[in-house]
Design brief:
The protein is of the alpha/beta class. It is 43% helix and 14% strand.
Amino acid sequence: MTKILFICHGNICRSTMAEFYMKHIVNMTGLSDSIHIESAGTSREEIGNDTHYGTKQKLDEMGIPYTRRKARQVTMEDYHNFDYLIIMAENNGRNLRRIVGDDVDSKVYKAMLFIGESRDVKDPWYTGNFDETYDDVSRSCDALLALIKKNM
C-alpha cells in the first residue's frame, strides 16, 4: 500500500483540498485499496477545526466528495508511516523539519515539483482565490498519481 500525506500550514485549505481531490481520482481509477491518503498541518493553530468553507465550496463546485474532519498536526510517526509527504509550500518544509528532523528517507516532496515547477501551491488563506489553488492541487495530484501508477 502506498501512503500519501499532504501537508500545509493549518490543515484546513490546501492540504485538505489535495487530500479529497486525490482520494477522488484514486477512487475513480479503482486504486483505493492500494493508495491511502491523509493530510496534516505543520502548525497547531487550526487543530480540531474542519476544512475551510472556501475549500468545501470549491470541492462542491467540482463535484468532489469530502467528509467532516478535524485538522491535525503532522508527527514524527507520520514521517515513518507515510511513503510520500507532500508539502504545499517551502515554509511547510522548514516547519516540517522542526517536527521530524532531516528527510533522511527522501520522502518529502514539494507538490508543484510533480509538474516541473518549483513554486508553492497558491495559498487561498491569503489570496481568497480557491480556483487558483484548485488548479495547482489538481495538476500536481494528477501528476503524482501518474507517477505512482507507473511505479506500481
